[in-house]
Design goal:
Mean pLDDT: 91
CATH topology: Rossmann fold
Number of domains: 1
Family: Belongs to the DprA/Smf family.
Distance between the termini: 57 Å
Order of helices and strands: HHEHEEHEHEHEHEHEHEH
Protein name: DNA-protecting protein DprA
GO biological process, one term: DNA-mediated transformation
Helix content: 40-55%
Strand order of the largest sheet: 1-2-6-5-4-3-7-8-9
Oligomer: single chain
Pfam families: DNA_processg_A
InterPro entries: DprA (IPR003488), DrpA_SLOG (IPR057666)
Amino acid sequence: MKIFSNDFQKVDVKRILEKYRANDISIVTIYDNEYPEMLKEIYDPPLALFTLGEKSLLKRNSIAIVGARTADVYAKQAIESLLGPLLERDMVIVSGLAKGTDTFAHRLTIQLGGKTIAVLGGGFFHLYPPENKQLAEQIKKGHLLVSEYPPIWRPQKWYFPMRNRIISGLAKGTVIVQAKVRSGSLITADYALEEGREVFAVPGPIGAPLSEGTNKLIQQGAKLVTSGNDILEELYMD
């Protein structure tokens, strides 16, 4: 305990906070007004969020779009079909900055003039995957990067499943576009169900490995969607 206390006292909090400010990084705690109410409702809300970009997006209505890292052109076309009506309702699109589906969701949202939030599985100073550093730069300038991990923390394999609860926790519903039977996207769907949120799935061709997860979700009761209007009708039905 004495060793821990000595190490803790050596931490230069002032210098760390100055470095955050120099990089435009903000910290939103669960006690702050900027903290999203929907995220407070989940089982294990993060006590603090590190943010880079437009913090106000945390308070906007949002939809999560996730799927396979090996997503193909079908996923891209599906996301294009979904986004129009959602962005017309000023919905923010939340995803995880991963390869494939997440990348399509972020990029297409930006191209169509919408707003997007990327939830990371590590700190801002160690963006992952490295191929998406340019996309992350775009997002932090006009949108929002979010992480529960301090900026100096490197991504770890087990951070990403935990990250998924924030993706679904920020959103009114989660859309799974493509997914194998065992995938991180289905973990996100499970979190959404636990949080009492809607789960939507895009159907895919029978026998296609990337459709097995989404088709199974539909069998289990997820809402089948082929357009953004299907999502809005479910969320706002009276």
